[in-house]
Structure formats: structure tokens, C-alpha cells
């Protein structure tokens, strides 16, 4: 009988501990929710500013639909790539300067998420990687390698390919030892341009 009482007491203790732990976790989640949301919003805004430093504000593009955007680029031949956000970059007077797209593309280590800024004239300001699982010192160079990054500054709407040798027209020179990542970023940029053409009438 005492054994049964002991089992019941132990079960009650475990139940109480579980309930208290759950309540504490819920409390911690609620306390940290706003700071986490603020940090995420700041990271997003910082990425937008990095690719459109002349803008004063960013507003969601009213006609954007992620599913439709992704379906559009998939139809154009871009697999394993999605457009997850689109905002308009505006100056102090509220005039539109262009767009910032958030692109998710598949690379060697998994998904790579980056923002890309495109002016109204169809030229690209640059890109900013916000999330990646690629290898430090190799694929991660796409985030830090200026010589690779600078190849995208000022390029016009079009389709670009990756080369390991000296790049020609519409070619991007790959990062040494990270061709897969280089191709992932370039394909993501191409897909972004494809979507841009559908909303802004950009010319290939």
C-alpha cells in the first residue's frame, strides 16, 4: 500500500514540476517576445538599408504575394528559389526609388536568405545575406568577400551565369572553392530580376 502511495506522490510531484516549468517557459517567452521582435525588425531594416542606403523608408509592396511570386519564377525555370518579401524603397518625400526583395535560395550548406535592392531603372544596388548555413571560409565568403559582392553592384536587369575564369558580359566570377554558393547567389539574383520585371516592367 505504501508503495502505491509513494508512486502517486511521485507522479503528483512530476505533474506539478511539469506544470510549473511550462508556466515559467511561457512567462519567459512572453517577456522576451517584444525584444526578439524588435531585434528581428532591426535586422530586417538594417538589411534593407545595406542594399538601399539612399532610402528613408520601406513600405510593403501592396500587390506582393509570396506564393504567386515564387510560382512566377519557378515557371521561368528557377527551382529551389523563393521570393518571400518585397518592399518599396522611398525617399524623404515619399517618392519610390525602387524595390528590395528578400530571396531564399538553395546552396551547399542549405538555404541562403538575402535582400537585394533594385532601382527603378533596373540596376542593382547590391545584396545583403541575412541567413546562411554555408561553410566559414568557403561559401560564407559570399557574405564577406568584397570582390564577389562588388560584381553585383550596378548590374542591370538580366540573366547572369557563373564562371571560374575571367568574367565576360553577364558573367560573375565564382568565389574560389565556393562555386556552388556563387551559383546559388547568382541564380537568386537572376530570379529576383525575373520577379522585378513582372512588377516594374524592367527590360531584359
How are the elements arranged and paired?
Layout: H1 2-51, E1 57-60, H2 66-75, E2 81-90, E3 96-107, E4 110-119, E5 124-132, H3 141-144, H4 146-149, E6 161-163, E7 171-173, H5 179-200
Parallel strand pairs: 6-7
Antiparallel strand pairs: 1-2, 2-3, 3-4, 4-5
Number of strands: 7
How much of the polypeptide forms β-strand, as a percent range?
A: 25-35%
Mean pLDDT: 83
Strands of the largest sheet, in order across it?
A: 1-2-3-4-5
Strand-pairing-aware structural class? alpha+beta
Q: Can you give the helix content as a percent range? A: 40-55%
> Which overall shape is indicated by the principal axes computed on the Cα atoms?
elongated
DSSP helical segment count: 5
Report the radius of gyration as a whole number of Å.
Answer: 23 Å
Distance between the termini: 83 Å
Please trace the helix and strand order, writing H or E for each element. HEHEEEEHHEEH
Catalogue the unreliable spans.
Answer: none
How would a textbook summarize the main sheet?
5 strands, antiparallel
Amino acid at each position: 500500500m505504501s508503495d502505491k502511495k509513494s508512486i502517486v506522490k511521485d507522479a503528483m510531484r512530476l505533474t506539478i514540476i511539469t506544470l510549473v516549468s511550462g508556466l515559467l517557459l511561457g512567462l519567459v517567452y512572453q517577456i522576451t517576445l517584444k525584444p526578439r521582435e524588435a531585434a528581428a525588425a532591426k535586422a530586417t531594416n538594417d538589411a534593407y538599408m545595406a542594399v538601399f542606403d539612399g532610402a528613408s523608408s520601406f513600405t510593403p509592396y501592396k500587390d506582393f504575394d509570396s506564393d504567386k511570386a515564387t510560382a512566377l519564377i519557378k515557371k521561368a525555370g528557377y527551382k529551389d528559389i523563393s521570393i518571400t518579401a518585397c518592399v518599396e524603397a522611398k525617399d524623404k518625400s515619399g517618392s519610390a526609388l525602387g524595390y528590395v526583395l528578400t530571396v531564399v535560395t538553395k546552396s551547399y550548406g542549405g538555404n541562403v536568405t538575402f535582400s537585394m535592392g533594385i532601382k527603378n531603372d533596373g540596376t542593382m544596388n547590391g545584396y545583403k545575406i541575412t541567413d546562411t548555413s554555408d561553410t566559414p571560409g568557403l561559401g560564407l565568403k559570399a557574405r564577406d568577400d568584397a570582390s564577389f559582392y562588388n560584381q553585383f553592384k550596378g548590374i542591370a536587369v538580366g540573366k547572369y551565369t557563373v564562371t571560374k575564369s575571367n568574367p565576360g558580359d553577364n558573367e560573375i566570377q565564382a568565389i574560389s572553392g565556393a562555386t556552388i554558393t556563387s551559383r546559388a547567389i547568382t541564380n537568386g539574383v537572376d530570379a529576383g530580376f525575373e520577379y522585378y520585371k513582372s512588377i516594374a516592367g524592367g527590360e531584359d
